[in-house]
């Protein structure tokens, strides 16, 4: 990697990072590049869809001051725009919760989808969908649209707490215990979800089906407005965890000696993971591999410093999910593939590649 | 002035410290020695707050455990025994983690990690991955991080402290001397140093005050020549030891051979 003229790798002097070992300049350049990537992906996403509304036509009309047709307005502003924003927020949330969880567990294989947090959030959401109907109308009126994302948050939170208690002793996480406990928790959540599906009625069943596969097709302003505040909050809190997660990489004792309030930060990290994963699962179902692949690729490029990793993960997660969503809309157009299938087909092999490269991690 | 009084620690069902205590002054190097299992690391960990303990630890009259983590981090840094790093940080990035609190606001802060690495003899190692260093190099890189955290031994008239848990255990003799000189220089500049050591000769050479432990209690503490005596050492280590002095300088050194000959 050559030091770019505008990369401020070591303060005033421009020594390349492979001499000083300071990769912060490279990280800043990466983040700028990712911003451009997300913008391009967003434009491509707005212009893609089964309705055949093209972005250039709309732009030409806008420039010449011509009125958009009703169809164009509905497609762009009521279908594609909420879908775009949902995709960006979900992608950012999944990638950031992966990065935070990996920092918390001090392990690059921790991912909400793999260790059952996604399944726990799913159970919470299904509980809300199926049993919500039995709640007193007064509570429903207050909770309204927020009931499903909130329930997903609590499901994810409970799972993360249990997982942390089971697999971490005296600040050291056993990878094998974490993965196995994650399988057990995921299976348990899946089984309970299955039982709920039996008591669901037809309308609820339709709601539940889109879920299992993971899709952005159901995105709407209503769903987005229910889940977006939780995701935005989690994304804003995450950077505050950066210094603590860097310190935790040295171990809990060393982190405390660096002046980090370890217990408080760990609790905040768990809440952040649960909020981001829960809300993402609530709007889009189980979209896998973003949380593990994105932080891993970024660590290869710019190192594991969480001050840069967390914002970069948000950007790359958002951009990649938009790309996956575009693929899901194009590959069998005019029908569309659930996006969870696309991320699994792309992410699965990358995950295996990570395992092959770093088999030592699992043997710990 | 650091004062630890009546420190007791119970690990599981076993009480490993029985009312141990020590006092240490800034500007001096205080070294805790004792046989394996005597509780020297436990005492240090109780003082640094790594272990829950009964008793009191005060720093300039303030209860050390009542200080907030960030306030404490401004006052003292702790070098742990070998630790496992979770992610592939470069050496520079590990050292930079010590750049915390007021030191990070200095205009030359970006250059300090490199200078800290030079100080521990790791100039040019910044771009290497920490996990790829040898055990001894890792220990010195961690020392650079810890030195960076308390870069100025005295800040605004307040002395700062270094707690070192077996700082030379993984090092060859040249680097042992280098690290001991670094710690000594920190103390000479007005900072306080408390170290746990195994090597009695390095202890005799560098410490201003020695705390000798046995079975979770402090057997003796004070100046080197008062504590490291034939009688104390033979009792603590359970073998015959004789303290000797090279005739010219009069410094203390310990040779097991001397006891066998006598």
UniProtKB/TrEMBL annotation, chain B:
Residues 2-240 form the ABC transporter domain. The keyword Translocase applies. The keyword ATP-binding applies. InterPro entries: AAA+_ATPase, ABC_transporter-like_ATP-bd, ABC_transporter-like_CS, P-loop_NTPase. SUPFAM superfamilies: P-loop containing nucleoside triphosphate hydrolases. Keywords: ATP-binding, Nucleotide-binding, Translocase, Transport. Signal peptide: none annotated. Coiled coil: none annotated. One of its GO terms (molecular function) is ATP binding. Part of the ABC transporter complex HmuTUV involved in hemin import. Responsible for energy coupling to the transport system. This is Heme ABC transporter ATP-binding protein. It comes from Rhabdonatronobacter sediminivivens.
């Amino acid at each position: 990697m050559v030091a770019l003229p505008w990369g401020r790798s070591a303060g005033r002097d421009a020594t390349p990072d492979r001499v000083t070992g300071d990769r912060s300049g490279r990280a800043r350049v990466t983040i700028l590049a990712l911003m451009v990537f997300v913008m391009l992906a967003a434009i491509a996403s707005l212009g893609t869809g089964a309705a055949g509304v093209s972005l250039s036509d709309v732009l030409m009309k806008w420039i010449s001051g011509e009125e958009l047709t009703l169809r164009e307005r509905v497609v762009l502003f009521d279908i594609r725009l909420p879908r775009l924003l949902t995709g960006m927020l979900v992608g950012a949330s999944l990638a950031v919760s992966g990065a935070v969880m990996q920092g918390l567990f001090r392990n690059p294989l921790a991912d909400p989808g793999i260790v059952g947090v996604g399944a726990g959030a799913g159970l919470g959401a299904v509980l809300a969908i199926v049993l919500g109907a039995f709640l007193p109308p007064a509570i429903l009126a207050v909770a309204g649209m927020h009931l499903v994302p909130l329930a997903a948050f609590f499901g994810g939170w409970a799972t993360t707490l249990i997982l942390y208690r089971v697999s971490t002793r005296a600040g050291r996480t056993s990878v094998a215990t974490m993965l196995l406990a994650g399988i057990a928790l995921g299976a348990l959540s899946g089984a309970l979800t299955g039982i709920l599906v039996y008591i669901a009625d037809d309308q609820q069943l339709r709601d539940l089906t889109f879920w299992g596969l993971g899709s952005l097709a159901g995105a709407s302003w209503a769903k987005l407005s229910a889940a977006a505040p939780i995701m935005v909050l989690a994304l804003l809190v995450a950077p505050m965890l950066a210094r603590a997660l860097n310190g935790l990489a040295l171990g809990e004792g060393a982190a405390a000696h660096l002046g980090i309030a370890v217990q408080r930060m760990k609790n905040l990290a768990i809440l952040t993971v649960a909020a981001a994963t829960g809300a993402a699962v609530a709007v889009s179902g189980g979209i896998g591999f973003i949380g593990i692949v994105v932080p891993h690729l970024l660590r290869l490029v710019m190192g594991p410093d969480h001050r840069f990793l967390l914002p970069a993960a948000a950007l790359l997660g958002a951009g990649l999910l938009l790309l996956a969503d575009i693929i899901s809309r194009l590959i069998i157009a005019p029908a569309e593939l659930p996006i969870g299938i696309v991320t699994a087909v792309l992410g699965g092999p990358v995950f295996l590649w990570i395992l092959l490269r770093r088999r030592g991690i699992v043997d710990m | 002035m650091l004062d630890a009084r009546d420190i007791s620690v119970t690990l599981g069902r076993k009480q490993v410290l029985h009312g141990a205590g020590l006092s240490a002054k800034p500007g001096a190097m205080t070294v805790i020695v004792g046989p394996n299992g005597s509780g020297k690391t436990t005492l240090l960990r109780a003082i640094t707050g790594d272990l829950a303990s009964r008793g009191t630890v005060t720093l300039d009259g303030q209860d050390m455990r009542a200080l907030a983590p960030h306030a404490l981090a401004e006052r003292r840094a702790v070098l742990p025994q070998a630790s496992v790093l979770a992610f592939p940080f470069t050496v520079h990035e590990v050292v930079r983690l010590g750049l915390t609190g007021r030191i990070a606001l200095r205009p030359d802060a970006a250059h300090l990690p490199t200078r800290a690495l030079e100080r521990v003899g790791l100039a040019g190692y910044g771009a290497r991955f920490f996990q790829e260093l040898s055990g001894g190099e890792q220990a010195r890189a961690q020392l650079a991080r810890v030195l960076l955290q308390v870069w100025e031994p005295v800040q605004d008239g307040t002395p700062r402290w270094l707690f070192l848990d077996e700082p030379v255990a993984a090092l060859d003799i040249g680097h042992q001397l280098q690290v001991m000189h670094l710690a000594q220089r920190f103390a000479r500049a007005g900072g306080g140093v408390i170290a746990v050591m195994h090597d009695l000769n390095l202890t005799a050479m560098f410490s201003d005050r020695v705390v000798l432990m046995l079975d979770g209690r402090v057997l003796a503490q004070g100046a080197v020549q008062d504590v490291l005596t034939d009688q104390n050492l033979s009792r603590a280590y359970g073998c015959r030891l004789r303290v000797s002095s090279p005739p010219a300088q009069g410094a203390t050194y310990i040779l097991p051979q001397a006891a066998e000959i006598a």
